[in-house]
């Protein structure tokens, strides 16, 4: 066979082989993706964590200098928009999460898909709590619940009910204590979750060891909320003075949706024997408005010590 004929034959052979190579490569890629999926189910974020146990809420391990956290596919753990205590220094100690106002029995959901690592009770801290390790590298902690609805080593999807709101452990009122941790180190949840707008802050959050502390301190102010995103103690207790309103602003529009962001909020602490109707009458509003302000309905049960927004 001449040299030209040999070259032509080789080119034809390579051309015929190319589709087979591409097909094999596609099959190999599918197999790799499947194996990674199985690995993520069994050991989420194995690139960050070389351990798995059910004995403790968190354990600090080596932190990367930079890590990109995928926030897509999220589900807000609660529809509540009210933050009663922020991340940071509080009463002389560090508060490593956000406290979100929920009522006893409210459904709490997994923020991302992952695997339940801890379901325990801590009487001096978290109360009844759940820890989930997620495929994006985060671990989330949900504390003070009245009931846990999942078990350890259970695989969950974003939005799966994992517990009910409560007041267990070291708690002075019903709320959800929500933490986000990377390699055991607490990050301000406000870097990633905007509870006021019921959304995440973006498709991704890039953790950088060199800047995370400064970012955490200003995270809530970046959401455009007054006072750095914090409620004052007076606002939490409902004792802050109401701002003066123009006459047209005080008129109640029955069918107009209530704006839950911005403006002054005032709160009522429920006393023994009070009902939703009696509280609404006390502040001169109709009970339907009280429902909308607090994301509740006519069959919601209230108890002494609950906080209700009335303005």
Folded structure, characterized:
The protein has 311 residues and is of the alpha+beta class. Helices cover 22% and strands 25% of the residues. It is built from five helices and 19 strands. The longest helix is centred in the first third of the chain and has 40 residues, at 3-42. The relative contact order is 0.13. Residues 220-263 have low confidence and may be disordered.
What labels describe this entry?
8-stranded antiparallel β-sheet, 311 residues, 19 strands, 3-stranded antiparallel β-sheet, 25% strand, alpha+beta, 5 helices
Query: Number of helical runs?
Result: 5
The rounded distance between the terminal residues' Cα atoms is: 93 Å
* Helix and strand run: HEEEEEEEEEEEEEEEEEHHEHHE
Helix content: 10-25%
What is the approximate shape? elongated
Strand content: 25-35%
For the CA atoms, what is the radius of gyration?
A: 26 Å
The oligomeric state is single chain
Major beta sheet summary: 8 strands, antiparallel
In round numbers, the mean pLDDT is 79
Number of strands: 19
**Stretches with pLDDT under 50, minimum 5 residues:** 220-263
Output the structural class.
alpha+beta
């Amino acid at each position: 066979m001449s040299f030209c004929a040999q070259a032509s034959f080789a080119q034809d052979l390579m051309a015929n082989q190319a589709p087979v190579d591409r097909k094999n490569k596609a099959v190999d890629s599918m197999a790799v993706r499947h194996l990674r999926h199985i690995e993520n189910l069994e050991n989420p974020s194995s690139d960050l964590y070389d351990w798995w146990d059910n004995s403790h809420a968190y354990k600090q391990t080596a932190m990367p200098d930079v890590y990109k956290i995928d926030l897509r596919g999220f589900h807000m753990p609660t529809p509540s928009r009210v933050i009663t205590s922020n991340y940071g220094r509080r009463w002389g100690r560090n508060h490593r999460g956000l406290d979100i106002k929920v009522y006893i029995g409210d459904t709490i959901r997994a923020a991302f898909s992952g695997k339940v690592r801890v379901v325990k009770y801590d009487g001096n801290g978290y109360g009844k709590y759940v820890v989930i390790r997620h495929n994006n590298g985060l671990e989330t902690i949900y504390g003070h619940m009245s009931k846990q609805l999942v078990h350890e080593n259970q695989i969950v999807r974003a939005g799966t009910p994992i517990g009910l709101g409560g007041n267990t452990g070291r708690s002075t009122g019903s709320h959800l204590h929500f933490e986000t941790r990377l390699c055991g180190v607490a990050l301000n949840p406000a870097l990633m979750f905007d509870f006021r707008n019921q959304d995440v802050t973006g498709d991704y959050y890039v953790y950088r060891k060199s800047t995370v502390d400064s970012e955490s301190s200003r995270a809530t102010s970046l959401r455009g909320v007054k006072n750095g995103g914090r409620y004052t103690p007076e606002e939490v207790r409902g004792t802050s003075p109401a701002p003066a309103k123009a006459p047209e602003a005080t008129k109640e529009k029955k069918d107009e949706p209530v704006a839950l962001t911005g403006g002054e909020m005032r709160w009522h602490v429920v006393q023994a024997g009070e009902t939703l109707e009696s509280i609404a009458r006390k502040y001169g509003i109709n009970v339907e408005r009280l429902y909308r302000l607090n994301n509740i309905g006519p069959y919601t049960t209230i108890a002494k010590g609950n906080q209700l927004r009335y303005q």
